[in-house]
Design brief:
Blueprint: E1 2-3, E2 8-12, H1 14-22, H2 27-36, E3 38-41, E4 46-51, E5 61-67, E6 71-77
Parallel strand pairs: 2-6
Antiparallel strand pairs: 1-2, 3-4, 4-5, 5-6
Pfam family, one: DUF4258
Protein name: DUF4258 domain-containing protein
Length: 84
């Protein structure tokens, strides 16, 4: 998978793939999330990307990612809420 938004290949960790399976998240939905979700940076390389996905009742869906030589998806969450 490639993310045009960041211009990087995407690597999904085993942990993130397990969470995707548990939460009914496909690679197509993950790609949409990465490309169009709202971003909040923790620091220069770590961030969260979240989006309300049409047809899901567990929104917000969120991916915790790290910017390295590729975009690393560490985990995928649902029922996510931004901290104020």
């Amino acid at each position: 998978m490639f993310c045009r938004r960041f211009g990087l290949d995407v690597y999904v960790t085993r942990h993130a793939r397990e969470r995707m399976a548990q939460r009914g998240m496909t690679e197509v939905l993950l790609s949409e999330l990465l490309e169009t979700g709202q971003m909040r940076y923790k620091d220069d390389t770590r961030l969260w990307i979240a989006k309300a996905m049409e047809g899901r009742n567990d929104n917000l869906v969120c991916a915790a990612v790290v910017l390295e030589d590729r975009l690393v998806v560490k985990t995928v969450m649902h029922h996510f809420q931004w901290e104020e």
